[in-house]
Amino acid sequence: MISIAIDGPSGAGKSTLARRLAADLGYVYVDTGAMYRSIGLYAVRCGVDPHDAAAVEALLPRIKLEIRLLEGTQHIYLNGEDVSEAIRAEAIGMAASAVSAHPAVRAFLLDTQRGLACSQNVLMDGRDIGTVVLPDATVKIYLTASAEARADRRCRELRQKGQDAVYETVLADIRQRDDQDMHRAIAPLKQAEDAIRIDTSEIDFDQSFALLRRTILEHI
Ligand code: DC
């Protein structure tokens, strides 16, 4: 089986690029962030502080996650409810980052993530795919961009959706998430030794897509 790991900080364009690349290459796209977001959403809905390791761990037996592909798009179900849209809120991204620091949460998701790569060609994106989940991935990409470039893109995205976006607030959130994701004790975000680093700060979406596609095809 071929597996492509794409890791990097939030807002680097990973999911949009990964989804398009998977469709282009005919691989199954696995968005592991959506799994952490669903657990974050569940904690928030239960009134549990996502930073409270013991309280979040106690919720895990009550959580059933399912991934289904509908017309080529990944949908995630939390206890039977399609939460694919609900998990995209900014606050849930922050909650996801907090719950993802707990070892019990990571252990809860690891087998599912590895299982998905056993029987099909996958393109999986996240923070620790090349370092922990699929250390033997066929190709590993570390996709990054400066915090400023990511904040700028995020603001434009939010405004397109008709939501208010203050650049300074968005930038501060991105920096806080980077800090949480890079400095946690377990499976922190870092570039795998054998990953190819791609920085998209200075290039647009189409250029990033072309560069990633070429890089992947050169290595499989
Ligand atoms: O990629 P994303 O923004 O949807 O991810 C949400 C959070 O989940 C992110 O801040 C850190 C966490 N995460 C993780 O720890 N490991 C992964 N493989 C994917 C996401």
What is this entry, summarized?
The protein is built from nine helices and eight strands. It has 220 residues and is of the alpha/beta class.
Note down, in words, how this protein is organized.
The protein is α/β, with parallel strands linked by helices and 220 residues long. Helices cover 50% and strands 17% of the residues. The chain is built from 9 helices and 8 strands. Helix 2 (32-45) packs across helix 4 and helix 7 (147-160) packs across helix 8. The longest helix is centred in the last third of the chain and has 17 residues, at 167-183. The model has no long low-confidence stretch (mean pLDDT 95). The chain binds 2'-deoxycytidine-5'-monophosphate. 2'-deoxycytidine-5'-monophosphate is lined by residues 10, 32-33, 36-37, 93, 96-97, 100, 126-129, 177, 181. Its EC number is 2.7.4.25. Its main location: cytoplasm. It is an enzyme of class 2 (transferase).
Q: Beta-sheet strand percentage?
A: 15-25%
What is the chain-wise order of helices and strands? EHEHHEEEHHEHEHHEH
Strand order of the largest sheet: 2-6-1-7-8
State the distance separating the first and last CA atoms: 11 Å
Output the radius of gyration: 17 Å
Roughly how much helix do the residues carry, as a percent range? 40-55%
Kindly report the average pLDDT value.
95
Structural class: alpha/beta
Count the helices. How many?
A: 9
Subunit arrangement of the protein: single chain
Strand segment tally: 8
Shape: globular
Ions and ligands: 2'-deoxycytidine-5'-monophosphate
Segments where pLDDT lies below 50 for 5+ residues?
none
Q: Describe the largest sheet.
A: 5 strands, parallel
